[in-house]
């Protein structure tokens, strides 16, 4: 009997070994990342760029070695660090984003995008895989140039914190450019549109490369200690990082929405990202205001920047396609504004405008009162009226006609820029033709540029603001009537789209 027990115990099945950490991470990893990294490493572009970059860094190192022997202890680290960073910057800020753009654009041109959707990954996971795969390739380039950048530290003239600061800001700029390039690949559907996007992207990537190199040179020249001692510089860097983070997220969600099906709730992601961006920005500003206690004049830049972001981003949200939302009376809950449709998009942006207007007014009264606060108060109150007016006007002009061509999202967005340009250029010209000054208040009452400047100006001869409360009420009346008419026009088109 003991032999039988022993035999049975010997034939008992063993427990299967648990998979290791790398195997579990590999199972959870986006399969598109592995595919794109393998394909990218095998490409000719990768090896040519990688080889030329290493060759350039090696030649620079030989030059640095030769000059250091001749010049002795003369500091040369800053110059050679910038030279190494140029080699890395050409790859990181031009080749990597452009390759990411071409990868997704090729999928759409060759009509292989449908095959990717059939894998069940979904647009968001596919785009995330595209972005992460090219960031992995960027990491390979950075790991190759890293020793050369560290070598510049031993040449004197640049400290290690400065090197880390430049590389950290450069990494943030790389992520933003890669996300923006992937998003640009989703903009056009026709061949002519893709060619135009291609040319514009090449120009913008070239400008972004120049901007990154100039910023790296200035940061390396000033040094870490000189820059971090300046509060304005820290605020500016934090503001730029926040813009790159939030707008990178917004661009990613917008690209995923453009690649989604029309039957899906494609607008939820971008609108939610847009709302959270403005909400978190407002909370950060309130925190900074309570700590720093700034003056009333500091409210105007915050107000103008906020309304510019709201209007330029909001015109893309409010010019959605008609008929994509459910019937207007079917769901009146507040969160239904995140669903598709031009009406819901317009009302969503108007709510954000009112939120930002209330925030700026609260910041104004929380600030230290200085001279000319009456004129600044008028400017703070009139800024949301200009934003509401020029958000509603192109929607009203584009959606009133019966023609669906003029009401298309692309033409409405073009009409927005045309109307803003005409409103800024024609009133000063008419004022000059009638023998008045170019900044005459009555002629420029609805001018979003000169009008806002007039409301913030102070007439010292009369010891009163240049503009009056009656003019402020007139601008608000025109803005509210235009917004109401645009809302009614959008409602009518939505009903007609549902009825057809």
From TrEMBL:
Transmembrane segments: 45-67, 79-101, 131-151, 163-188, 195-218, 233-252, 272-291, 303-321, 342-366, 378-398, 410-434, 467-486
Domain of life: Bacteria
Plastid keyword on record: no
Keywords: Membrane, Transmembrane, Transmembrane helix
Keyword Transmembrane helix found: yes
Name of the protein: ABC transporter permease
Source organism of the structure: Archangium minus
């Amino acid at each position: 009997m003991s032999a039988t027990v022993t035999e049975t115990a010997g034939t008992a099945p063993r427990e299967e070994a648990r998979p290791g950490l790398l195997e579990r991470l590999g199972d959870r990893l986006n399969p598109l990342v592995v595919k794109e990294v393998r394909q990218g490493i095998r490409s000719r572009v990768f090896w040519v760029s990688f080889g030329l970059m290493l060759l350039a860094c090696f030649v620079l190192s030989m030059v640095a070695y030769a000059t250091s022997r001749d010049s002795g202890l003369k500091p040369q680290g800053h110059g050679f660090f910038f030279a190494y960073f140029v080699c890395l910057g050409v790859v990181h800020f031009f080749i990597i984003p452009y390759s990411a753009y071409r990868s997704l654009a090729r999928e759409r041109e060759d009509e292989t995008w449908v095959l990717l959707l059939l894998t069940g990954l979904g647009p968001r996971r596919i785009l995330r895989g595209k972005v992460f795969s090219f960031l992995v390739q960027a990491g390979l380039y950075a790991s190759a140039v890293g020793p050369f950048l560290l070598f510049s530290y031993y040449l004197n003239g640049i400290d290690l914190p400065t090197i880390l600061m430049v590389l950290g800001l450069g990494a943030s700029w790389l992520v933003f450019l890669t996300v923006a390039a992937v998003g640009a690949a989703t903009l056009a559907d026709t061949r002519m549109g893709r060619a135009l996007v291609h040319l514009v992207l090449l120009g913008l990537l070239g400008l972004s490369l120049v901007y990154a190199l100039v910023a790296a040179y200035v940061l390396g020249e000033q040094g870490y200690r000189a820059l971090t001692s300046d509060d304005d510089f820290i605020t500016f860097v934090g503001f730029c990082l926040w813009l790159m983070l939030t707008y990178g997220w917004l661009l990613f969600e917008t690209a995923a929405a453009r690649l989604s099906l029309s039957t899906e709730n494609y607008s939820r992601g971008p609108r939610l990202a847009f709302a959270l961006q403005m909400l978190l920005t407002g909370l950060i500003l309130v925190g900074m205001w309570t700590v720093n206690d700034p003056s009333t004049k500091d409210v105007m830049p915050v107000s103008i920047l906020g309304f510019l972001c709201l209007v330029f981003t909001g015109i893309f949200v409010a010019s959605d396609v008609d008929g994509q939302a459910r019937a207007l009376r079917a769901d009146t809950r507040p969160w239904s504004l995140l669903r598709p449709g031009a009406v819901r998009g317009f009302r969503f942006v108007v709510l954000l405008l009112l939120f930002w207007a209330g925030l700026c007014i609260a910041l104004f009264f929380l600030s230290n009162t200085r001279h000319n606060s009456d004129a600044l108060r008028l400017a703070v109150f009139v800024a949301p009226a200009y934003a509401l007016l020029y958000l509603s006007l192109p929607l009203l002009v584009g959606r009133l006609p019966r023609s669906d061509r003029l009401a298309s999202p692309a033409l409405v967005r073009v009409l927005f820029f045309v109307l803003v340009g005409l409103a800024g250029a024609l009133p000063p010209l008419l004022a000059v033709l009638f023998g008045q000054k170019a900044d005459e208040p009555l002629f420029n009452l609805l001018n979003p540029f000169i009008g806002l400047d007039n409301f913030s100006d102070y007439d010292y001869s009369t010891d009163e603001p240049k503009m009056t409360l009656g003019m402020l009420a007139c601008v608000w009346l025109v803005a509210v009537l235009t917004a109401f008419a645009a809302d009614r026009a959008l409602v009518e088109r939505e009903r007609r789209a549902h009825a057809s």
